[in-house]
Structure formats: structure tokens, C-alpha cells
Input
Amino acid sequence: MHWLQSLDVFLFHWVNPVLSNPLLDWFMPLCSGNRLFAPVLVLACGLLAWKGGARGRVCLFMLILAIAVGDSVICNSLKHLIHRPRPFLTLPDVHMPPSIGRTDSGSMPSSHAANWFAATMVLLIYYRRSWRFMLPGAVLVSFSRIYNGVHYPSDVLVGAILGAGYAVAVVWLVDALWQQAGQRWFPLWWRRFPSLIDIRDDGPNRAPAPASPNPAQVAQQWINLAYVVIGTQLVVQLCFLASGIIDVAEDEAYQWMWSKHPALSYYSKPPLIAYTHFIGTGLWGDNSFGIHFFPPIIAALIQFSLLRFLVREVSPRAGFWIVALCPAIPLMAIGNILMTVDPLSVLFWTLAMLAGWRAVRDTGTTRDWLWVGLWSGLGFLSKYTALFQWLSWGLFFLLHPPARRHLRRSGPYLALLVTLLCTTPVVLWNYQHHWITVKHVAEGGRLEEAWSVGSLWVNFTRYTLEFVGGETFVLNPFIVLPVLWAVAKLWRQRPRNPLLTFCFCMGAPVVGTYFLLSFHSRVLLNWIAPAVIPFLCVGVIYWDERWQTGDKRCRPWLAAALSIGAVVEVLLHAPRLTEKLAGRELPPQANALRRISGWKETAEAVDAVRQRMLGEGKPVLLIGAHYGITSEMALYLPEARARIRQDPLVYCITANQPDNQYYFWPGYREHHGANAVFAREMGLEMKHVDPLPEMLKAEFTSLKDLGFVDVLHHGRLIRRLQIIECRGMR
Output
């Protein structure tokens, strides 16, 4: 094998640096990636989907599937398995153009070559003449990887063979699956396109559509397609989380710490999030997958419940569209992979809403109301926003007089009683802790500050516009605008559609309250999360009714919304794909996933200082300046995880008053004479360290500031820490 390595190095040096010159130094980095590539790619995909007919859309689907599977699963796994250093890390005199970034990720195989040859092969299958421009492009991009000094020739060759191979395999497997399942699940579509390889809109392979398709078959196809979307999303999300690409976010690690200290409630949140982490990590261990296990499950439950609801109350097509649009909302897409209180809150709010619609119907029973109370109670145990749902009921009774007859029955009052019973653990815990949660929630909304007319305009420009613009972005503007149109039309209806009115009322109090609060203080974008599903239902129901009357103006909006959603999903599941497309490294401040990356390296950087101090013969503890970094160190250091319940290794800095859950747990002051390592995260742009904390000065006999410690993730700056050696606890 040594002669192969020698040949590889010889061929590499034949290109790099022999062929280097100023012109190629400018041109070759552009071939690897440039800022125009991403918008051109999006435009090309849009044209293929819009003008390419059925063949174009199937081709686009195969392209996305082949590249997604190949880049994130096959190539990424092989890089980690082989772990071949890149040429510039091992060879002398490697020429690299100035614009090329350095990374410590594996060199074998080349993902650029694999992706380009995969795309070339898929396009060749569907458009035979595409090789005329795709093959030269793939070869040029592959050659540029050698010229730029980031890959050996064998990396490129293996990537090209792999990409072409798995592209053919993906197309063949999907077509084989279509041959087996398509005829049974989608008979009408299968009759038109019995093969997904030889698919032509006007060719002999296309059978004419039946003049009058069976309505039952059409309805069942919509339902089956929704099941495919739910199942595919669930499998993809679980596989992605199992890959370990993302770390645990600070709030997730913090709430995972709660699960190690069971209680009736906690400082800032109700207890259900801790119990959920307890179950997830009990099943899969104290790791990223165990903590992230439930969000995809919750998302699937929400979509399945909405599908059944809309199929029964509206139409199967409406059921499919709400299933397809849920992951197209960035706020919901984030909730599908991060285990915070929001997924639980949205789940129980949705279940309470669906049970509530059954309860207010003529066939509603007391049992239905009891379910409303239980789901609302579990929603309160997830997030305090659930109390808004009772305002939603009040608004519905106000706007829909026929529903008021239920106020003369026991059902609503029993539901309220069940909800109040569910609040008992939180109320009892807060009573024992001087109502600290009430104070925390009031401080979060700055409710202790007086409202003033003079500050309204300032707050409007500072907070309200931020709230409106931010929500439009995180909810997908191509979904927000059609929903607002549907809401406006709802108010003009006489009489109003009861179901539309009900869904509107289930979301309006949340959005309205936080919109008004934005005139006073900053509102976080996720606070309205429970209202997203009700308003989405309003939009889907309204536009499905219009569709049935022949008004299909929503089609471009649906296409745009799903396109935005697809882009968001790709960026969430392939966080480095943006850099590959643009050919540039994102600055750390612009990396949206920085908060869920590099925490293992962060914990190890702090522990390295601790290991050195252990040589002095005294116990050494770890102290975090914030609950986030404290919890991350407790999660990602094996010794800290093992000692989390008894004799903890990691603590949060002492506070004079409650400001997080660590205040209520035993602190580090009982370890008299011990040493410690204090760590706090600093801004990446900071040039000077902060002064030593006064609390540490009072608690230890001596402090030594080590200054900045830069934490690298895949060879890139991800976090900057200030680390202080603390000796002699008083």
C-alpha cells in the first residue's frame, strides 16, 4: 500500500504546486464554491420543479435524496472512519490560495466530488444530454479540490465513484419501492407513472388519467401521502439525531440537570420537561440522542392528530397540507430536534384544542370535556402559557353564541377543575419557595416596570417591529401572509364558519397578548409557539374551501412555503452545507448552530486545566459562571456525569439571590480547602478579559486568571472562554 500512497502524493504534487499561478489561484476557489452558486442552484431547482413537469419534479426529488443521503451519511461516515488528514496538514510546501479555509475534517472521500458526480448521474438518468455540461463541471470542481490543496487525487477519485454509485442505487431503490408500494398506496398516480426512471410527461410510459377518478381513491391517496411524510420525517429526524452532528443546547443540558433532581417544580419552568428528559435518558442513556429522542416523536404525534382531525372535519387534502406545512415553519422545524418546553407545550395545546372541538359539538360529552381539562393541565405542567387557553375558551364563547349552551352544563367546569388539580405540584413548590417562579416570570416580561405613554413609540420601534418581523421570518412569510388573509376573510363572513372561529380563538389570545406586551418589553419569538397550530389550521381550512370552489390562488404560496421549509430543513440537518455551497467559511458570529456545537470540546478545555491542578494534591472542582456552561460541563465530562447526584464535580457560581435552579441545590462552599477551575464564556469579539468576580475573591484565598482559551470545533473557533484557577476555598 505504500506505493499507492507514494503515487497519490506524486500525482498531488504534479498539480499542487506545479500548476499554481495567479489566474488559477483566483479561478479554482470559485470552482470549489462561490457566493453565486447557492442562489443559482435555488433558481435552477425552482425552474426544474416549475417547468420540468412530472419528470423534473421526480428528478429534483432524486437529486435531493441522493445528495442528502450521500453527503450526510455515506461521505461523512467514511470521513470519520478513515480519518485521513488533508494534504496541507501532512505534506510540506502545499500551495493553498488565500481564500481557501482550513479544516481538520477527514480528507477521504471528497464530498465535493461525490456530490457533483451524484448530481451528474441523476441528471443523466432523466436528461441524457445533461452530461455535456454536468460532467465537465464535475471534473472541474474535483480538479479544483486538488489544486486548492485540500484533497489528494485518490480522495477525488473515490468521491466520484462513490457519488455516481450511490446516486444510481438511490434512484433504483426508490423506483423499486414505487413498483411495490405505489400500486397499492397511490394507484391513480401509479397508473400514470408506473416507473420513476423512465418518466415522461408526454411519452408512451404515461397512461392517460381516468376521466372521473374514484373520489374514495383520491381521498385515500392524500391520506397515504400524509402518512409517508410523517413516517419519513420521523425516520430522518431520528437518524440525524443518532448521528451526533449536533450537541445539546444550554437550556437542554440545564433541564437535563433537573431530571437528576426530581421535584414538584423548578425555578423557571414546570416539571414535565424534567420528567421527559428522565424517560428519554433512561431509555437511551445520558447522551445527545437520549436528550433529543422525544422531539421527533412529539412532532409525529402532533401531525398525526391534526391529520385525523382535518380528514374528519374538512377533507383529506387539507389533512395532507397541514402535515406538509408543519415542518415548513422554521420555529416548528427547530422544535422537531431540540428538547425544550415548547414541543410539549404545543403538543398538549393541540390535543386540548382537538378535544375541545369534539366537546363543543352537539354530540359532545362530559368525557370530552374531561380530556380537555387533562390536556390543558399537562400543558400547564409543560409551560405556563397553557393558561392562555382558558382565555381562548372565553373568546370562543363570546364570538360563537351557540356554544354558550355548554356553560349551562357541568363539562367546562369539570375540565377547569381537572386543569386546576394539575397545577397543584407547581403551586405547592412555589409556596415552599416564596413564589419565586411568579417573580421570575414577571421579571422576564419586565412587568414590574410601569407602562408609560411616552415610551410607546420607542418600544414600538425597538420591540414591536422586532417582534412582527421576527415572527414573520420564523413562521415562514409564505405561510404567514395567506393565514392573515384567511383571518381577515373570517371576520367578514356572515355567519362565521364555526370551525374557523374556534381555531382562531385557540390562538388569538396568545398572539394578541404578546403583541401588546411588545409595546412594553422584548418578547422572545418562541413565546407564541402554542398559537402556531391553531392559526395554521385557519389558513389550511380556509384555502381548502377556496380550492374546492376552483380558487387555486394559494398554489404559488404553497410551493414557495414548502421551498423555504425545504431549505430550512437542509440547513438544520446539514449545518456545513451552506459553507460548501458558498465556498466560504461562515464567521462564528453568523453560525446559527454555534450554540449547539462544540460543547464537548468546551468541557474538555476546562477539564484540561483541572487535570493539571490535580497534581497539586488537592481536590479540584469545576465552577461555571452561568447555568448553561455549568450544565454542559456536567453533561459532557464522564466523571461529572458519574458524580452528578452524590458529591458533584460541577457547580454554578454562588448567587446572593435566586437566579437559576442551582441556587436551591447544595453549593461548593462545603468543600473547604479545595481548589477549583472557574469558566465563563466571553464574546468572540472581545479583546480583554473581564475583571475577576467579586464572589470568587471572597470564597478563595488566591485567584489566577489564565486569560482567554479559544475552543475549536472541527478546526474552527466556536467559543472563547475566560478560565480562572481558584485555590484554597475559605
Summary: The domain at 2-192 is CATH 1.20.144 (Vanadium-containing Chloroperoxidase; domain 1). Strands lie at 620-624, 650-652, 675-682, 700-713, 716-729. The chain has a mean pLDDT of 86. Residues 153-185 form the longest helix (33 residues).
